[in-house]
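Team,

Forwarding the record for the chain on the shared tracking sheet. I've put the sequence and predicted structure together so nobody has to dig through attachments.
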Amino acid sequence: MDKIVALGIDVGSTTVKMVGVNASGDFEWNYLEGSDPRVEDQVDSFLQRFRTETGMTDSVPLVATGYGRKLVGQAEKIVTEITCHAKGVFKQLGHGGTLIDIGGQDSKVIIIGEEGQVVDFAMNDKCAAGTGRFLENTAGRLRVPLDQMGEVAIAARDEVAISSTCTVFAESEIISLIAHGVKVEPILKGLHRSLIIRVVAMVRSIGLIPPLMLSGGVVKNPAIRKMIEEESGEPVILPEQPQLMGAYGAALIAQKIAVG
C-alpha cells in the first residue's frame, strides 16, 4: 500500500463511505457501513479504523460530502455531492458525459465536461419516488430482500404499471394490487420502471451527452442498469465501486490540499 495522503467521507442517508488516496489520487483504502444519527461519533470511529487498518498515525486532510456533510466537524472542507461524484467518476473513467447518481435520499443528473468540470445538473431531492428510498420502502411490504429486488424484477415476464408519483400513494397502490391477486414479480418490475422513468425524464430535461455513466449504491441493482438503458436508448458505463464515487471525489479534493 502506498502512503495515504488524504481522506474523503460521504455521509449519505443510508450509508457512510470513506476513501483514502495516495499522492497520485489512486484508491488505497476504503470502508463503508450503515449511517448512524451520531455523525461525528461515527466519523471518529471511521478515522480510528483507518489508523488501525493502515498503521498510519500522521494526520491527513479530510473532505466531507453527502447528505450529512455539514455535521462532520472533523473535516477541513465540505463539498457538494455533485462536485464530488463528478470528480470521482472523471478520475476513474477519464472522460466526461452524462452521469446519473441515484442515492437513497435524492437522485442527480450531472453533465461533466471534457476536463471533469460540472457543466450542468438536475436534482430531485423533494420526492422519494425517484430515489433508492422508493425501492427500500416497498421491499419490506413485498417481503423481498432489498439486495434481491433487481434480480426478481429482471426475471419477471409481466410488468404492472405503477401510476402513483408519490411513495406513500405507490404503497397504497401496491397493497391494492396484492389484494387483487397480482403477483409480486410484475409489481416489482413496475416499481423499478416507475423510478427509472422519473430519472430519465431528468436526463432529458438537461440533455443527454453520451456516454451515459452511473454512480451511487442503487446502481448496483441490475434492474436499474437494464431499465436505464431501455428508457434512455444509451448503453451505460459504471466505474469500479460506484457506491464510493462521492467519497472518492472528496478524497481527490483533500489530496489537492495535501500536496498543494
